Amino acid sequence: MTFWATVAIASLASTVAASPLVSHLDAGSLFGRTSCGTSTPLSCHNTTKQTNLCCFESPGGSILQTQFWDTSPSTGPSNSWTIHGLWPDHCDNSFSENCDPSRDYSSITNILQNAGATDILSYMQTYWKNDPDDGSDEEFWEHEWSTHGTCYSTLQPSCISGGVQGQDAVYFFTRVVNTFKTLNTYNFLSSEGIAPSSSTTHTLSSLQSALKSAYGFTPALTCDGSDLNQISYYFNLQGSLIDGTLVPYNAPSGSSDCPSSGIKYLPKSGSGGGSPTSTGGGSIPTGGSGSLPSKGTIQSSTGTGCLLSLATWSTQTCATFTYSGSASGFTMTSSKGECGVLSGALTCGSGVSSSTFTAVTSGGQLLLAYQGSTSFSANAVPSGETQETVFTGTSHSQKLSFVL
Ligand SMILES: *[C@@H]1O[C@H](CO)[C@@H](O)[C@H](O)[C@H]1NC(C)=O
């Protein structure tokens, strides 16, 4: 807090930056509003020392949009790659990390919500997935921000007048999502006749030439053994990451890390659905069975209590939820509004963007599942008037499932 206040005063004194004063977190109205203009050189292409690093990205002028193709376990929609990050590598391919621990934010979800960037957040919930064995999506976003996001010179607090804590991260996450949306690797490959298969093998050069012909530039590919699992698209930046232009270029030679042949592009299992270009596309997992009612209560599998309209667990009168979709993928609402998972907790309300749930048949019951898992947990068993927050996964002490 004090850090930002200090910076705000400093930046008023020497306004290098061009953004107007902001008094609250802002999702979008400031985009296109730096006065960096188009006269600064392209990052990594300057011939003289640049002094205004709010408008010239340095030293991280080689920007990589990295994506995962996770099949073990599968994450995200089965017809889309998922976001890894947007990394400011140095022009010589070295890089800096963790550039400003004072800006390691504790909740990217809250920052984006407070900025009103709910469309960006809900897109991230579908397309920016952590490996569930490594932690939550929120943890992954925090990691990407603190490790890489804090290294952008053009997102330094002194470049953003007003000193609203978190605005730098709003700009970062918005730019990552909007950049990813233009880099639909799944479609690039499928337009060249390359679809996931558990038996077909590819050479590195055939994959690279397919991507070059679909996209125009050659990205770098990374494999896990012989399984294709990551791609990096390379850019230089003209202006600020906030609203400058990302200019693509070919990945440097030697930047791919796959065998030259025998590469497999394996299918994802378990989920499918949305495509990065569809608006609000949630993942529509398959594999559920049993038919979903159109509405009903959601009971605890422990026999104690049920969900109230805010999706809290309680022994008070159960709420009625309305389901839309099928067992293999549905959204739900209560009298409070749409229901979703925010920061790992179930919640329903007017500002909530819906998550996609599935219904899984188990022991003759239809269980609520999120990202394929029927496991939920809470800090305590409710009694009387108490309401317990319900978390996805088993990280809290009282573990339970919910019967639809
Ligand atoms: C480009 O600008 C950066 C930042 O000032 C500087 O470090 C670098 O040396 C410059 N490159 C050239 C070739 O002048």
Automatic annotation (TrEMBL):
One Gene Ontology molecular-function label: RNA binding
Record region (Disordered): 268-297
Domain of life: Eukaryota
CDD domains given in the database record: RNase_T2_euk (cd01061)
GO-annotated cellular components: extracellular region; vacuolar lumen
Domain RNase T2-like C-terminal, chain residue ranges per copy: 294-401
Annotated InterPro entries: Ribonuclease_T2_eukaryotic, RNase_T2-like, RNase_T2-like_sf, RNase_T2_His_AS_1, RNase_T2_His_AS_2, RNaseT2L_C
Assigned keywords, A-Z: Cytoplasm, Disulfide bond, Glycoprotein, Hydrolase, Lyase, Nuclease, Signal, Vacuole
Record: active site: 84, 144, 148
The keyword Glycoprotein belongs to this UniProt entry's keyword annotation: yes
Gene3D superfamilies (alphabetical): Ribonuclease T2-like (3.90.730.10)
Family membership: Belongs to the RNase T2 family.
PANTHER family, per the entry: RIBONUCLEASE T2
Name recorded for this polypeptide: Ribonuclease T2-like
Species the sequence originates in: Calocera cornea HHB12733
